[in-house]
């Protein structure tokens, strides 16, 4: 898919930020990648995308849905390959004889754990994000969202936008609880203090099974989801990277379908009832009665007051 290819190419381009660390990274990128060729292909893909979006048959909503599905499939495939590499590496390490120093160190650590484990109390966990990681790992089919952002991005991330939003709307500190549920499988939960109601914080968790591949991405993902939950119809999402914009539009589409679903179902039931009523009447009534009944039912369907109908 062109958008995925565009995202991969943009990540190869050197950053335009002026700092020493970035300049070193950019130098290594330029040595390994033909920057001119990459920029040429990026321009070609952007031109193609622009021409597609101008086409009157182009459906932005369907394109976003397809893009998200492709991202999920690509991330899942990448995660499986990495897990296989880690597994193979661990198996090769287990075959090597363990050094005696390592064995002694392990024994010392175990003794220290027995001596001080009961004395060193852990800090109490917050009440938000109470899901059991082991239970999730065993029972959940993960959907890993790929959230790579081009190095050239200079705008705000969802965490930054959320912090500004909280300041403007009398909301307090944001506290993230981020957990790893497996290799490259991260989730985050969020608690926001309310200045007007200190004892009633707002708590947010991602939908079940949704995760990403790093701690930073997990926190930005829950920040974007929180912004959507607080104000889904705001245009604030336009200030965040494209990959988060696409997620936002997908969530908005799901929300609209859920809200319109009951109305559509009632309309279908009503239409079916009227159709069955007319069909049954055709069997029982003569021609004049059928004309009168059809007229009456049509008036009911369009909320009109039927007037006497004469036939013949």
- Percent range for helical residues? 55-70%
The CATH class of the domain at 125-240: Alpha Beta
What's the pLDDT, averaged over the residues?
74
Second CATH tier, the architecture of the domain at 125-240: 2-Layer Sandwich
| H/E element order | HHHHHHEHEEEEHHH
GO molecular function, one term: helicase activity
Structure write-up:
One of its GO terms (molecular function) is hydrolase activity. Residues 1-30, 87-107 are annotated as: Disordered. The protein has 312 residues and is mainly α. Among the domains are: 125-240, 2-Layer Sandwich (Double Stranded RNA Binding Domain); 259-301. Helices cover 61% and strands 10% of the residues. It contains ten helices and five strands. The strands form two sheets. A three-stranded antiparallel beta sheet has the order 2-3-4. The chain has a two-stranded parallel sheet with strand order 1-5. Strand 2 (171-182) and strand 3 (185-194) form a beta hairpin. Helix 1 (2-12) packs antiparallel against helix 3. It is extended, with a radius of gyration of 29 Å. The termini are far apart. The model is unreliable at 99-105 and 107-126 (pLDDT under 50).
Describe the SSE topology.
Blueprint: H1 2-12, H2 20-32, H3 35-54, H4 60-95, H5 100-116, H6 133-139, E1 143-145, H7 158-168, E2 171-182, E3 185-194, E4 202-205, E5 210-212, H8 215-230, H9 242-284, H10 287-301
Parallel strand pairs: 1-5
Antiparallel strand pairs: 2-3, 3-4
């Amino acid at each position: 898919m062109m958008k995925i290819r565009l995202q991969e190419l943009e990540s190869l381009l050197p950053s335009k930020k002026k700092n020493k660390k970035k300049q070193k990274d950019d130098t290594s990128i330029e040595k390994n990648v033909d920057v001119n060729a990459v920029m040429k292909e990026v321009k070609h893909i952007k031109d193609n995308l622009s021409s597609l979006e101008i086409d009157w048959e182009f459906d932005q909503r369907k394109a976003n849905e397809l893009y998200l599905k492709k991202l999920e499939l690509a991330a899942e495939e990448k995660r499986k390959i990495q897990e296989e590499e880690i597994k193979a590496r661990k198996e090769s390490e287990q075959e090597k004889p363990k050094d005696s120093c390592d064995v002694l160190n392990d024994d010392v650590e175990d003794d220290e754990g027995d001596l001080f484990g009961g004395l060193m109390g852990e800090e109490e966990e917050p009440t938000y994000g109470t899901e059991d990681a082991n239970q999730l790992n065993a029972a959940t089919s993960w959907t890993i969202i790929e959230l790579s952002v081009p190095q050239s991005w200079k705008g705000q991330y969802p965490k930054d936008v959320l912090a500004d939003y909280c300041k403007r709307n009398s909301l307090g500190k944001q506290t993230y609880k981020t957990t790893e549920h497996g290799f490259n499988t991260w989730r985050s939960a969020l608690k926001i203090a309310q200045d007007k109601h200190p004892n009633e914080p707002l708590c947010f968790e991602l939908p079940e099974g949704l995760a990403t591949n790093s701690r930073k991405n997990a926190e930005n993902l829950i920040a974007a989801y929180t912004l959507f939950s607080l104000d889904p119809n705001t245009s604030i999402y336009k200030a965040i990277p494209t990959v988060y914009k696409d997620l936002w539009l997908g969530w908005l589409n799901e929300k609209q379908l859920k809200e319109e679903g009951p109305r559509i179902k009632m309309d279908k039931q009503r239409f079916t009832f009227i159709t069955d009523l007319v069909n049954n009447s055709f069997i029982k009534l003569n021609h004049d009665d059928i004309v009168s009944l059809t007229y009456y039912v049509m008036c009911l369907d369009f909320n009109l007051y039927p007037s006497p109908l004469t036939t013949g």
